[in-house]
Amino acid sequence: MEGLLAFISAVCSRIQTVSDLFWDFPTNFEWYSGIPVLGNFSLAIILLIGSGIYFSANLRFIQLRKFKYGLQVLKNSKAKTGITPLASFFLSTAMRVGPGNILGVTGAVSVGGPGALLWMWVSAFFGMATAFVESTLSQIFKEKKNDEYLGGMSFYGRRLLKNSAIIGVILSLMYIIYAILCFPAQGFNTVSAMGQIASIISGTELPTTHAVYWVGFAAVILATCAVSFGGTKKIAKVTDVLVPVMAIVYVLTVVLLVLINFARIPWFFYAIFTEAFKPEAVFGGAFGTALMQGVKRGLMSNEAGQGTITMPAAASDAAHPCDQGCVQAIGVFLDTIVICTLTGFVVIMGRVWLTDKGAAWMELGKLPKYLASVEELTPGTGFNSVVTLLVSLCFGLFAFTCLLGFMSFSEICANRISRSKVFINAIRLIDIAVICFGMLTSIVGMDLGALWDLSDFANILIAYCNIPLLYVGFKYVKKATEHFEKNDGTPFTSEVIGIDVPVWDEKAEEISGKSISA
Length: 518
Known about the structure:
It contains 24 helices and two strands. With 518 residues, the chain is mostly helical.
């Protein structure tokens, strides 16, 4: 077993080398890194934040102007075909709000200091505009199949690049690869959380080889298969229940922790801004480290620009393509500005990252490393056990809902490549096998760090595929936005944006027919 773990770690380290190349280029060249301030900005950071700034400026900061409107869309959600905008929001949030909201923030602060949280905020603010663009695109070019809508990066990528079937296949394959690279960490996190919960309830630290872990292993596989193979609507029914529960429980738990430690709040903001803008940080390596960690963990958390949230966005029966764009922008806000900030409160105010304990976080390992901060904020009280249990429960739900989303949308992409039952079943088996691998790594005691490298690589790889497509399709998003803001009562059709959008033409005909009959 030790030999196998050593082999896995060696493979992951190779992938990490490639991942670092994608993330760090060209800061890994001395001539570039030596440029004051600018030398801290890698191509990945320029592409991710720069695109958000570009879209924000060109759409006149629509993420702010239409924030309230997005909330109204959620409040008045209805659907005749597919799922409601609210169900789509919950489904996308199930994938956005994952273990990265806890471990990612913990790792970012541990490696990059409190200043990393500021850059998570910055990337999220501009990422809201990016999410608006990619979600609006997914709505514009969605397709109808029976009583569901299908769409996303592989769909709009094909339409934008001369309707090339091979482009659709390549992008679908890219998502499947992305999911496969992310599955191990999510499987690891799910079973790790279940073991942590069992340890809290039993009052003793259970070894990872305990029967509880094996029972959890079987339960997760069975539940994931039962739900994910039922299609988007079935998954949406599950996430409609789980997402509000896990988000509300986590937010209320952490808010209570913050209120109990109210006196530490000024120091929280002081630590963030002084660490981010002190001269030795801005003109030295510390700035680059904080910036990179903030953007990298922000992307892992809110997924703005990756194209991974475009499939649930397309599944919505929105009244206008931009409606779902406004909704998905709110999703980024909830994920990073709200949930990641609350995690940041716990990590930074707990101050464990300043002690020797914080050094262990460099491994970005198991959940107990985050819970060390919770313990510091509730020292010697019975409340600590309650908080630890609730956080562990939310963490497990975060990971499980991510698994559901990845499996469901992998299958949609697989269907985009081939309708063959043999091919579809092969993808299902590969997904299940990789999830099993992730959970087994937890049971045998492997650290999460190596698996995290796979996720980092998957995140930047698919972002490099998606963001260029957003620029190609931005002219259609602008036309759709102009029509949306004009709000003159005319339906959104092919004529509005100058390209065929059959789903919207059909929808306009239905509305027109109803008006005539009325």
